[in-house]
Amino acid sequence: MLMVTGANGNLGRQVITNLMALVGPSGFVAGTRDPSSAFARQLTASGVDVRRVDFDDPDTLAAAFHGVEAALLISTYAPNSVRPRQNLNAIEAARRAGVRRLAYTSFAGAGPTATADHSVEVHWPTEQALMASGMEYTILRHALYADIMVGDLEDTLTTGVLRRAGGSAPCAFIARDDLGLSAATVLANPGHANRIYTETMEKTLTCSQIAAEMSDVFERNIRYDAVSADEWPAYMTQHWGLPLELAKSSLGTMRAIESGELDITSRDYEAITGRKPKTMRQFLATVAARRRGS
Ligand SMILES: NC(=O)c1ccc[n+]([C@@H]2O[C@H](COP(=O)([O-])OP(=O)(O)OC[C@H]3O[C@@H](n4cnc5c(N)ncnc54)[C@H](OP(=O)(O)O)[C@@H]3O)[C@@H](O)[C@H]2O)c1
To answer: pTM value?
Structure first.
């Protein structure tokens, strides 16, 4: 039996869509803090075993991992001060329950001296704990979600300006739905034990290059206007309405982009799935098609 945590989240749903196709509803457990959500009830009705999983409540975890052979632990959006404990709770519960292999969603470039604070404070220690756990591990170091570049698409299209931190540094991106396929593939197939994968598109891109791709795909002029990494949290609060504390969590990532540290490419995605990841243009084209259909 396989398992994915964070079933209600964006990535969790993408992984589930792919697990449905790869192993069917009886082949996996969907873990979520809220088994009564509309999506969770829909899964239950389709024959999926939905179980309560809350990394903050270790008592839920022993039952959740019971009978599971391979699980995907999707990292949460909690503050950096909270996430290591959440992940350690999940790793320990999985080990005790006899889970053979645990996969974890980490971040590109995770390491003890990375610029992004969540890489240093959350992902690197979690990777270390997982590797020391005695279970087989698969670490999925994700590039920046391409989806982040279209989070305020209507505003970008209306103003003709893509405002982002990053400056002139190229950055690794990947579409979140591609990551749903690779995570499900890693879970459902042998051959991924004790591997660390870095998942990126084939090319890194600067924000100016993305603005040019957007101009072509959405057929209007879009230019890039740089916001500095240090100004980015306040910008998100002012323009996107995010609480400042939450917006601040992106500061480390933006500094990492600006520093050029995320100028990384890897062919790991194709090695896992046998398919090339979507290019930024292909990703934007899917967004444009969805937008036209709406
Ligand atoms: N690479 C990148 O660019 C990038 C960007 C953003 C985020 N991320 C990371 O990738 C993760 C998934 O991204 P996403 O877009 O799918 O985020 P999302 O939609 O906000 O999902 C967050 C997930 O965390 C789960 N969760 C929250 N608190 C939990 C807890 N106490 N115990 C167990 N699960 C908990 C939620 O599941 P339930 O509600 O079902 O419990 C949900 O699936 C994020 O949480 C973040 O760590 C990466």
So the answer is: 0.97
